[in-house]
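Task: sequence in, structure out. Protein: Calcineurin-like phosphoesterase domain-containing protein.
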Amino acid sequence: MATRANKTTRIVCISDTHSRYDFVLPSGDILVHTGDFSKSGLQDEVEYFITWLKSLTKYRLKIFIAGNHDHTLDPISYERCWKRWHRGRKQNCAPVGHLIHDRSLATNFGIIYLEEQLFVDNVTGLSFYG
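Result:
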């Protein structure tokens, strides 16, 4: 928990949910998901995750990064997948980054995706890098 000018900010941190969200989260101000929110980063898994984050209205902010299972969000993993696809080893390589780079997610839902960048919460002054 961070304390700023006599105000406490409760941060809830989770990871490795792998498209399973059938658990109860404690209350807090900011939720941080530190990767592996999907099984393999497929578009429907990313959409499901974003829908789940939107439903978590008890958190002012929902900050997340991609993990190794969320490979379609990682440019290097996506490139490897694409090369394998061209060599005849078909697999789902659809880029889904556009789903999480939509600015309205931050504005309307407090959802922040970090990819080698810094985010400073203007309410608490806390910095997050992912």
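The two ends are 19 Å apart (CA to CA).
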